[in-house]
Amino acid sequence: MRAKQNNVTFRRNHKDKELWVIEKPKLLIIGPTPPPYHGVAVAIQTLLRSPLSENFDVSHLELGDRRGIQHVNKPDLHDVLLFINQWCRLLGLLIRHRPRMVYLVISQTTIGFLRDSFLIWPAYFLGCRVIIHLHGGNLREWFLGRNWFMQAYVRSLLCRVHHVIVLGESLKELFQGLVETSRISVVSNGIEWRTAKSKSEPNSIQRYRILHLSTISHLKGALVLLSAVPLVIRHRQDVEFIFAGPWSHFEDQQEAEAFIARENLSKYVTFTGQVEGETKYALLESADVFVFPGVQQEGQPLVVLEAMAAGLPVIFTNRGCLQDTVIDGETGLEVPIKDPLRLADRILWLLDHPADMQTMGTRARLRYEACYTKARHVTSMIEVFSLVLQR
Question: Running along the chain, 391 residues long, what does each successive block of 10 average in pLDDT?
Fold first, then answer.
């Protein structure tokens, strides 16, 4: 004999004695894990490797495309076949495991949203409570640019979602008129980082290191930063600019190489390629300023949190919830989008005020410790999942 009440299962053994067994609520996490490395994949991996399993019976549907970062968000026939396989595996997980909750990160493109919706509908019709997580800031702009039919479809899907998670308070407004505020929670990203090394002024031989670490792309502001380099070295030559990460567009790489050759910048600019593990730690700890002049809408880039954790002041643009994350004038400096002149001015200001630069870096580290650790992120996610269960 077997019966369930909440998360307690009652069983009777052969001697007719009643046993109480605590069963964890079942949670299905849908999403990619590295490789390739990008924000969503790292966030999903963080959840799967966290103490989340102490509170929930966690299963996972892998959505990763192992071909590389250049294939992310670029659908082709391989993606179609991959999705068919993933959808079939989803049905198997839903039928066999019967999760009470299903969690996935929602896309902000038409093809991506349609794909995600085909993952949500089976979970909804099988009685699961669906939680979606928005890792960007472009949803509303995308939604308003769709036709009436697609907008109606988005509304129909979102009204069947039990809960929405966003990365910052300023991103709640993206769901205005689509999801009730009571069904939206803010959970910031979180990373694990060791103690930051104290920064010291470079001696007469060393140069200040200005670091940009990301997928190297015009969308991430790499070409804007590159355009600022000649403006900086007109005033100071004790600098070097490090661009770390893989190129996402061959056209961007060609444009950058042509610009460097034309402006004779080769002794001031270095491209390292992909960096991971200890190499990334060392690179961040050797830098003096971190620059993320994003052009496209962002969510809350993990590389910005890594820079703060490493004790670096961050120069940033108002994309996604970066204004919520990096406090202008305290932990970094905000610059307008696509403005290399202003970007160069802010870099020079920091170099001319080394004490302020070091103070901002120290405050950035403290803000990371208070708001953006992995432990804090996982605790907040557990609280959201528990809230959904209670409702």
Answer: 45 54 87 85 91 93 77 72 93 94 95 95 96 93 95 96 95 94 95 72 70 94 97 96 93 95 95 92 95 92 95 95 94 97 97 96 96 95 94 78
d(CA 122, CA 94): 8
Q: Edge-to-edge strands of the sheet including 18-22?
A: 2-5, 8-12, 18-22
Superfamily for 208-371?
A: Glycogen Phosphorylase B; (3.40.50.2000)
Give the distance from CA 80 to its chain's centroid: 25
What tokens appear for 263 in the block? 């402006």
Contact 303, 154 (CB under 8 A): no
Q: How far apart are CA 53 and CA 243, in angstroms?
A: 38
- In the numeric block, the tokens 């290399």 are attached to 340
State the pTM of this model. 0.85
2-190+373-390 belongs to which CATH class?
alpha beta
Distance CA 230, CA 264 (A): 9
